[in-house]
Amino acid sequence: MRTYFVGLGLGLFLILGGVSSALALQSGGVEIGDLATGSVVGQPFKELDVDLAFTASHVAGSDGWYPPVSVLNLVAQGTGGRAGRPVLLKVTNKLDKEYTFHLSADSSHAGPWSMEANTTLKPGETKYIGIPTSDLTYVTANSMLTYNNPSSKDDRAGQLMIIR
Protein backbone atom coordinates (compact mmCIF):
# COMPACT_ATOMS: atom_id res chain seq x y z
CA MET A 1 0.00 0.00 0.00
CA ARG A 2 2.85 2.32 0.83
CA THR A 3 4.41 1.70 -2.61
CA TYR A 4 1.10 2.63 -4.23
CA PHE A 5 0.99 6.02 -2.47
CA VAL A 6 4.64 6.75 -3.20
CA GLY A 7 4.06 5.97 -6.90
CA LEU A 8 0.89 8.06 -6.95
CA GLY A 9 2.68 10.98 -5.28
CA LEU A 10 5.59 10.77 -7.69
CA GLY A 11 3.21 10.64 -10.66
CA LEU A 12 1.33 13.71 -9.44
CA PHE A 13 4.59 15.53 -8.82
CA LEU A 14 5.74 14.88 -12.40
CA ILE A 15 2.39 15.91 -13.88
CA LEU A 16 2.16 19.09 -11.83
CA GLY A 17 5.82 19.86 -12.48
CA GLY A 18 5.18 19.85 -16.21
CA VAL A 19 7.51 17.01 -17.15
CA SER A 20 6.69 15.69 -20.59
CA SER A 21 6.41 11.98 -21.15
CA ALA A 22 7.59 12.35 -24.78
CA LEU A 23 11.05 13.77 -24.26
CA ALA A 24 12.66 11.57 -26.90
CA LEU A 25 10.32 12.83 -29.60
CA GLN A 26 10.99 16.49 -28.87
CA SER A 27 14.66 16.71 -29.64
CA GLY A 28 15.04 20.21 -31.01
CA GLY A 29 12.93 20.82 -34.08
CA VAL A 30 13.78 22.48 -37.36
CA GLU A 31 15.72 25.76 -37.33
CA ILE A 32 15.91 28.13 -40.32
CA GLY A 33 18.38 30.97 -40.73
CA ASP A 34 21.60 32.14 -42.30
CA LEU A 35 25.19 31.17 -41.60
CA ALA A 36 25.81 34.10 -39.27
CA THR A 37 22.78 33.78 -36.97
CA GLY A 38 21.40 30.25 -37.38
CA SER A 39 21.95 27.35 -35.03
CA VAL A 40 20.28 24.05 -34.25
CA VAL A 41 20.52 22.28 -30.89
CA GLY A 42 23.15 24.82 -29.89
CA GLN A 43 25.48 24.22 -32.85
CA PRO A 44 25.97 27.26 -35.15
CA PHE A 45 25.28 26.66 -38.84
CA LYS A 46 28.71 28.05 -39.79
CA GLU A 47 30.36 25.20 -37.87
CA LEU A 48 28.41 22.50 -39.75
CA ASP A 49 28.99 20.95 -43.16
CA VAL A 50 26.15 21.31 -45.68
CA ASP A 51 24.64 17.85 -46.19
CA LEU A 52 22.26 18.65 -49.06
CA ALA A 53 21.71 21.66 -51.31
CA PHE A 54 18.48 22.53 -53.12
CA THR A 55 18.04 25.18 -55.81
CA ALA A 56 14.80 26.70 -57.09
CA SER A 57 15.19 27.21 -60.82
CA HIS A 58 13.38 27.13 -64.13
CA VAL A 59 14.26 23.97 -66.11
CA ALA A 60 12.52 22.53 -69.18
CA GLY A 61 9.59 24.91 -68.97
CA SER A 62 8.71 24.52 -65.29
CA ASP A 63 9.84 25.83 -61.94
CA GLY A 64 10.81 23.56 -59.12
CA TRP A 65 13.34 22.52 -56.49
CA TYR A 66 16.32 20.70 -57.93
CA PRO A 67 17.58 18.03 -57.69
CA PRO A 68 14.20 16.27 -57.93
CA VAL A 69 15.49 13.31 -55.88
CA SER A 70 18.03 13.48 -53.05
CA VAL A 71 19.49 10.81 -50.80
CA LEU A 72 20.66 11.38 -47.23
CA ASN A 73 22.80 8.54 -45.90
CA LEU A 74 22.55 8.23 -42.10
CA VAL A 75 24.13 4.80 -41.71
CA ALA A 76 27.40 4.41 -39.82
CA GLN A 77 29.48 4.26 -43.01
CA GLY A 78 27.82 7.43 -44.37
CA THR A 79 26.95 10.49 -42.34
CA GLY A 80 25.85 8.32 -39.41
CA GLY A 81 29.22 8.84 -37.75
CA ARG A 82 28.16 12.43 -37.14
CA ALA A 83 28.30 12.17 -33.30
CA GLY A 84 25.09 14.11 -32.74
CA ARG A 85 25.70 16.67 -35.48
CA PRO A 86 22.44 17.89 -37.01
CA VAL A 87 21.68 17.73 -40.74
CA LEU A 88 22.16 21.03 -42.57
CA LEU A 89 20.27 21.83 -45.79
CA LYS A 90 21.11 24.78 -48.04
CA VAL A 91 18.24 26.22 -50.11
CA THR A 92 18.80 28.86 -52.81
CA ASN A 93 16.24 30.67 -54.96
CA LYS A 94 17.58 31.31 -58.50
CA LEU A 95 14.16 32.41 -59.81
CA ASP A 96 13.07 36.02 -60.39
CA LYS A 97 10.14 35.64 -57.94
CA GLU A 98 9.64 34.61 -54.32
CA TYR A 99 9.58 30.86 -53.92
CA THR A 100 8.74 28.64 -50.95
CA PHE A 101 10.66 25.59 -49.78
CA HIS A 102 8.38 23.20 -47.91
CA LEU A 103 9.81 19.94 -46.53
CA SER A 104 7.50 17.51 -44.77
CA ALA A 105 7.10 13.90 -43.76
CA ASP A 106 4.23 11.63 -44.66
CA SER A 107 0.92 13.39 -44.00
CA SER A 108 -0.44 10.34 -42.17
CA HIS A 109 1.92 11.10 -39.27
CA ALA A 110 0.52 13.60 -36.83
CA GLY A 111 1.27 14.96 -33.39
CA PRO A 112 4.83 14.71 -32.11
CA TRP A 113 5.90 12.66 -35.15
CA SER A 114 5.17 15.35 -37.73
CA MET A 115 8.03 17.45 -39.02
CA GLU A 116 7.72 20.43 -41.28
CA ALA A 117 10.15 23.04 -42.57
CA ASN A 118 8.68 25.96 -44.46
CA THR A 119 10.52 29.07 -45.61
CA THR A 120 9.96 31.62 -48.38
CA LEU A 121 13.01 32.91 -50.21
CA LYS A 122 13.32 36.15 -52.13
CA PRO A 123 14.98 36.10 -55.58
CA GLY A 124 18.68 35.26 -55.17
CA GLU A 125 18.33 34.51 -51.44
CA THR A 126 19.96 31.56 -49.67
CA LYS A 127 18.85 30.11 -46.34
CA TYR A 128 19.97 27.18 -44.24
CA ILE A 129 17.74 24.65 -42.51
CA GLY A 130 19.11 22.70 -39.56
CA ILE A 131 17.38 19.51 -38.47
CA PRO A 132 18.45 17.28 -35.55
CA THR A 133 19.29 13.80 -36.83
CA SER A 134 16.92 12.26 -34.31
CA ASP A 135 14.02 14.33 -35.68
CA LEU A 136 14.68 12.96 -39.16
CA THR A 137 14.74 9.36 -37.99
CA TYR A 138 11.59 9.64 -35.83
CA VAL A 139 9.36 11.23 -38.48
CA THR A 140 10.22 9.14 -41.50
CA ALA A 141 8.47 5.81 -41.06
CA ASN A 142 8.81 5.15 -44.78
CA SER A 143 12.20 6.94 -45.05
CA MET A 144 10.78 9.52 -47.48
CA LEU A 145 10.27 13.27 -47.17
CA THR A 146 8.71 15.51 -49.82
CA TYR A 147 9.87 19.00 -50.76
CA ASN A 148 7.94 21.43 -52.95
CA ASN A 149 6.46 24.89 -53.35
CA PRO A 150 2.98 24.43 -51.83
CA SER A 151 1.56 27.60 -53.40
CA SER A 152 1.92 26.20 -56.93
CA LYS A 153 0.56 22.74 -57.69
CA ASP A 154 1.99 22.80 -61.24
CA ASP A 155 5.62 23.11 -60.11
CA ARG A 156 7.86 20.09 -59.71
CA ALA A 157 8.02 18.42 -56.31
CA GLY A 158 10.99 16.44 -55.07
CA GLN A 159 11.63 13.56 -52.73
CA LEU A 160 14.30 13.11 -50.08
CA MET A 161 15.11 9.49 -49.31
CA ILE A 162 16.76 8.79 -45.98
CA ILE A 163 18.93 5.70 -45.62
CA ARG A 164 19.31 4.65 -42.00
Question: Could you write a compact summary of the structure shown?
Answer:
By secondary structure, the chain is mostly beta strands.
How would you sum up this structure, described in words?
- About 5% of the residues have low confidence.
- This protein is mainly beta and 164 residues long.
- The protein is elongated.
- Strands 1-10-7-4-5 form a five-stranded mixed beta sheet.
- The protein is built from two helices and twelve strands, in the order αββββββββββαββ.
- The longest helix is centred in the N-terminal third of the chain and has 16 residues.
- It has a single domain, classed as Sandwich (Immunoglobulin-like).
What is the topological layout?
Elements: H1 2-17, E1 31-33, E2 39-40, E3 43-44, E4 52-59, E5 62-66, E6 69-73, E7 87-93, E8 99-104, E9 116-121, E10 126-131, H2 133-139, E11 144-148, E12 158-163
Parallel strand pairs: 4-7, 6-12
Antiparallel strand pairs: 1-10, 2-3, 4-5, 7-10, 8-9, 8-11, 11-12
